[in-house]
Amino acid sequence: xxxxxxxxxxxxxxxQKTKTLPTFDLLRTDSSHFKSSSVxxxxxxxxxxxxxxxxxxxxxxxxxxxxMQSFKNYQIILVTYIDLPEIKKFENDYQxxxxxxxxxxxxxxxxxVRYFYNVGTFPFTxxxxxxxxxxxxxxxxxxxxxxxxx
Length: 150
Prior knowledge:
- Helices cover 36% and strands 21% of the residues.
- It is of the alpha/beta class.
- It has a single domain (2-148), classed as Glutaredoxin (3-Layer(aba) Sandwich), CATH 3.40.30.10.
- The strands form two sheets. It has a five-stranded mixed β-sheet, with helices on one face.
- The N and C termini lie far apart (39 Å).
C-alpha cells in the first residue's frame, strides 16, 4: 500500500516538474509505432488519453473534428491502453484517416502515459506549445471554445 502511494505521488510529481512530453511508444492499427521522438518539432500538441468506448471521449473527439479548422495546426495524439480492434473501430467510425494531424495508438499495459499524468478519468487532455512545453491539462472534458482560445 505504501509502495503504491509512492508510485502515485512520484508519477504526479514527475509530470508537474518536467512540463515536457513523456517518453512513449504507441502501437498503431497499421502495426507501426508512434513514439514521443516522432512528434513533430515546431507544432503544438494536444495529447488525449481516452477510451474508444467512452461516451465522453466520443463526444469530445466529435467536437474536435467539427471544429478541426481551429485545431489543424495541432498534432493530436490519441493514447489508450485498449486493444487495437477497438481503436480500429474508433478510427473508422470517426474517419480519423482523413486527418493527417491525428495519430491514435495503444500503449498497452505499459501505462507509461497514464502513470506520467496520473490519469484517473477519460478523456484526459494535455496541451503543449510548439516548444513541447506543457501549457495546461484538463482532467475532465474541456469546453471546445476554451481550447480554441489557447
